[in-house]
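Quick start: what a row looks like.
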Amino acid sequence: MSRINREEVKRTADVHRANIQKRLEQRLEVARSKGDENLIRLLEQEMQQL
């Protein structure tokens, strides 16, 4: 794989990870607003795995 391709793959992976984290934060905010303690706990665990 050429250097350019590796850089593109890394950039894409970084964007993908950022999108996942943003979506998790949004879901966590909704879970907190609803007081869903079980979902909050699960989402917090998922965020720690990132």
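That is the whole record. The chain has one domain: 3-49. The mean pLDDT is 93.
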